[in-house]
Amino acid sequence: MNFSSKLLEDAVNEFSKLPGVGQKTALRLVLHLLNKEKEEVNLFGNTLIRLKAEIKNCNICRNISDHVICEICSSNKRDKETICVVEDTRDVMAIENTGQYFGVYHVLGGLISPMDGVGPADLFIDGLVDRVAAGGVKEIILALSPNMEGDTTLFYLYKRLKEFNVPITTIARGIAFGGELEYTDEITLGRSIITRVPYETAMMK
Ligand SMILES: [Zn+2]
C-alpha cells in the first residue's frame, strides 16, 4: 500500500496489528477517525491510554477491575464459599450474563497448553490453591472450555486441589467439543452451571 503520508501509514500499521483487522479495514478506520472532531479523537486515544494505565487485576480473583478488589469479590451479596474457575475475563462476563451464578470467581489467565509453551507456572494457579488452602471454600466449579487445553487444565487442577477435600464440580458437557465458553448461548451456559456434576463423574463418561 502506497501512503501519501508517513503519519497515515503509521496509524494504519497500528490498527492492522489488531486481530482480524487487515490493511484495508485499518485504512477505513483511520480515515473515519480523521474525519471526526478533534475532541472525539482525543477521547478515543485517551480512553485507550487510561485503560492500559489504570486497569487492575483483582488481588483475589485476578478478574479485570477498576479497583484492587473487584466488585464481585467485594460484594456481600456473593457466596464466597463457592469459587468458579475460568480461563479469562470473557468467561466471567458470559457466566454473569446468565444470571444463574452467585458465587465468586477465579480467573486463571489462560489454559495449560504445552504446544503453545504455556505451563501451570504461567497461570494464576498457585493463587487458587492458596485460596482453597486458606479454608472456607465449600465448592470449586471448574468452568473451562471443553477442548484439549481445557481438559488438560481440568486434570491438573483436580490433582492440585483434591487434597483439600473440597467438592470439585465441572460444568455439564452440553457444549460441543472444541467450543469456546464465551460463544455458548446464555441459556445453555446457565443450565450447564446449574446441572454441574462432580469432576470424577464427568471424567468417567
Ligand atoms: Zn475479584
TrEMBL record:
One Pfam family matching this protein: RecR_C
Keyword Nucleotidyltransferase (UniProt): no
GO biological process, alphabetically ordered: DNA recombination; DNA repair
PANTHER family, per database record: RECOMBINATION PROTEIN RECR
NCBIfam families associated with the record: recR
Purpose: May play a role in DNA repair. It seems to be involved in an RecBC-independent recombinational process of DNA repair. It may act with RecF and RecO.
Protein name (database record): Recombination protein RecR
